[in-house]
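Feature request disguised as a bug report, sorry. It would help if multi-protein outputs had a clear separator. Right now it looks like this:
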Amino acid sequence: MSQHARRQLTVVLAGAASLAIAMGVGRFAFTPILPMMLHDGVLDLHVAGNLATANYIGYLVGALASMLVPKKWDHTTVIRLALATTVILTALMALPVPSMWISLRFLAGVVSAVGFVFTSGWCLAELSGTSGSIGSAIYTGPGAGIALSGVAASFMSAAGLTGQLGWVTFAAMSAIMSALIWGVFGRRTKSVEAFYVGTARAASGKVPGAEMPLFAMAYGLAGFGYIITATYLPVIAKNAIPGSSLLTVFWPLFGISAVVGSLLAAKVKKNADARLYLIGSYLVQAAGVALSVVWQDALGLAVSSILVGIPFTAISFFAMNEVRRIRSTHHARHMGLLTAMFAIGQIMGPPAVGVILRNEANVDVGFALALGIASLTLVVGAAIFVAMIVMFPGKRRPAGTAKHVSG
């Protein structure tokens, strides 16, 4: 293997691990730990919804903060800070001080967004100019982190361990992973060739004013569309098939499916229109969300987990590259804009579930209504991308014409 190939592999593995920590732990460790905390009696679904909402609000704040970070700041320093802070905040969740949990989950959301934006930007820049869509491989990280945390929580739950120990375990896992990749983020980012999947802007470099707002709106709808499943999947499964030995399988299956989706995205040709793949991803995820309403047994929930999981990180990959295509300069700022819109969509999820559950005597009916709305939201997002293809057909970028930008 050549030195260049080894460097690419190192960047992919480090990027995936960084996103596994930022997303799989910083954002989603709460999902598999939630049933354990409910069993421990330290919270109820109402408090759980508040904690989830705090995390998503933090994610929004972190995304907005990413937009304000000066361009001259080195991405690798920000990534290292995000890794270390995630470990600390995860460990602090083990403290039996419920009054702190809202603040801790909020801060974890802030750091998660910052880690996602800067890891994405740095890695995609480092991997630019490569054959194929190798950059998508870094997005196996969130799925791998979700799967790993889900499997670990399954074993801990089966052993009768507490949610408190779950937080300690996830903090330790994150610390070990951070130590292993720390050195990769030790060198400053250099100017590299931009990497694109999708249509290119016209030769003038000007972008129609409505394109970015429409894109951001569609991406924000994806945040709401998946978040109810991603937050409450173990609880939904427990209500649908109580007492089943498969209750702990669905969340890891979601994560594994996300890994598969990222690997499939790597097969996409660079001259493909990313918006077509976003449309397909939204519709697949919409079908998965809807399926959990109409097919409520173990097999139905398994298929639903797969269909929601496969597009999960692939959507992020296509969207982040589309940002680099639309806004090639200071792309971290515009990645932050999209991440902020995504966060707004997420923030609306748990409160919407809370309102519906308060007005529905039957919990199952309430979840079914919430999931139906989420599925419809994803269909609307896909329709926006269809409209964008009609409004902004774009031109293909000829080979070898990629511009050089600062990563």
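(second protein starts here, but nothing in the output says so)
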Amino acid sequence: MMAVPNCEVSKPRRIKALLSSFLKGVSREEKKQSENKEVISEPTEGDDADGFADGFVVVDEISTEQSSTVQPLNQELFFNRVETFSISSWFAKPDEVSPLRCAQYGWENIDVDSLKCVSCKEILYGGLPPKWETDSYEKACKKLEESLKAGHSKICPWQSNPSPASFLEVNLVNTQKAVDDFLHRVASIRCFGTSIPAVDLSCLQQVQENEDVLSRLVTGVLGEEPTSDYKERIELVCFMALSGWSRSSPEVSQSPTMSCEFCRRNVGLWNFTPFEQNAKTTNEDESEPTAKRLKVDKGLFNPIEEHRSWCPWTKPASVTYTVRSLPQDKNQDNNTPVRPAWHGLQVLLHERSSPNKQGPLTNKQVTPPSQAWKAVRRITNFWQSRSAAQKT
């Protein structure tokens, strides 16, 4: 082997790059044999300041490893991290440290109350004291929330470059995408056929709606006029799609299974009463005591309660859509309660299907006064010029 001349640290890096071609490099396989070599230590007394030691080039493993794991804009990898969390290993945590929040900063769940960064491999313990110890519980929650950012190594990019906040919520800003996603979920659930479960519609009352809203979705959004026998079934399909459920990918399960994109919850339809069986049983047992009919209700699928507690579908969306009240409606309360995201989607779909209806869908943003004033001036100038032309 050719002798390597001694080079000063101040020499240009291109010279050392040339010299490195005569040196033996450490292979990736050798690096992977020891976890200690994932983080490069400070050079010792016998080492060159740039990482050259005894004829070896020390490879910066972090830079090559992070190039494949630090992809904050990759939504698929984001949900892969979310999917590592389970009820048994990340239980009863506040929304501030929900699996979505943890995945936003590059953490995945590796054990009970334990997180690991996919890039710097730091371990973060997330155990919390009992809730009845109010002061200590709140302090621990706050510290854990801060650790999602500060718990990384100093050179880890995740602490300053997390995934976008839009990954954590239902997108109601892009209305066309929201409509297309809804129609896609409807089409996927329809494929279940006779396996479609009977659905609990009681959650409609919590947002002061009734079953008529589902009928309007079928006729207005889907553009269908189903027969009486099929009408109720397609309404239930719309409600499940409205709540964020879709058919699971065949790669996940060959059995009839529905899943949520956000909370990664998978539910097997065999755990619920099929719609046709429930309708038949209800008609046959209308004269039976209430206690017997309640046994049938235990098998109903509740599209809202089946989500995990931190799922964005059950939380308010960042952009709240409201229906503009009519001028004569003076008794309407302007302080309307904040609705969950699934109900916001219902309002959006309803207004998109009836654009000529009074009370169009609007968001909280209003036209700037300067633009409004320019519009008034244009209208005024138009009528003034028209009046002058008529006089002449």
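Even a blank line would do. Unrelated, but nice: Residues 68-168 form a domain with the Inhibitor Of Apoptosis Protein (2mihbC-IAP-1); Chain A fold (CATH 1.10.1170).
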